[in-house]
Structures are given as C-alpha cells and as structure tokens.
Design a protein that fits this description.
By secondary structure, this protein is mainly α. It has a single domain, classed as Arc Repressor Mutant, subunit A, CATH 1.10.10. 63% of the residues lie in helices and 9% in strands. It has a two-stranded antiparallel ribbon. Strand 1 and strand 2 form a beta hairpin. The longest helix is centred in the first third of the chain and has 21 residues. The protein is globular. It starts with a helix and ends with a helix.
C-alpha cells in the first residue's frame, strides 16, 4: 500500500513539473494534454479525486495548474500530518 502511495506521489510531482516547465500556470497559458505531454488518462483522473483538488483546472479543453491552490493543498496535508503525531 505504501509503495503505491509513494508511486502516486512521484507521478504527481512529475505532472506538477510538466505544468511548470510548460508555463501552464494561469488560464491564459492553459495547454492541451498533448501540448503538456500528458496521457489521455489525465482527463479521466480529473473526473475523480485529482479534479476535486482543484489544483489542475480545465478551461475549454485546455489545462493549467493553480500554484495558489497547490500551496493550500500542501498546507492542508502538512497540518494533517502534524495533528496525527500528537
């Protein structure tokens, strides 16, 4: 189970890097999956848990990453980890 979670985390970091490298960080710079070099499965993942995070945003068939929302999600995860330690 932990290996799967670790692999998902690694894959997510790869996707985040792709958005940053391509500059797809706001609606005006949104890119298609092909331009981002992402598989079509990304679209399916957006319909599940990944899409509910609101880190990756779809606009007219193109995608961008919200750095602000990513920061919020990271902070929320970090606070959960701190709470679990006491």
């Amino acid at each position: 189970m932990f290996r799967r979670r670790e692999r998902i985390g690694e894959r997510l970091l790869e996707v985040i890097d792709k958005f940053r490298q391509k500059g797809a960080l706001n609606p005006d710079k949104a890119l298609t999956l092909e331009e981002l070099g992402l598989p079509q499965e990304f679209r399916e993942l957006m319909n599940r848990r990944l899409g509910r995070l609101d880190v990756f945003v779809e606009v007219n068939g193109k995608y961008y990453m919200s750095e602000e929302r990513l920061k919020e999600v990271k902070e929320r995860i970090a606070s959960r980890r701190r709470l679990g330690r006491w």
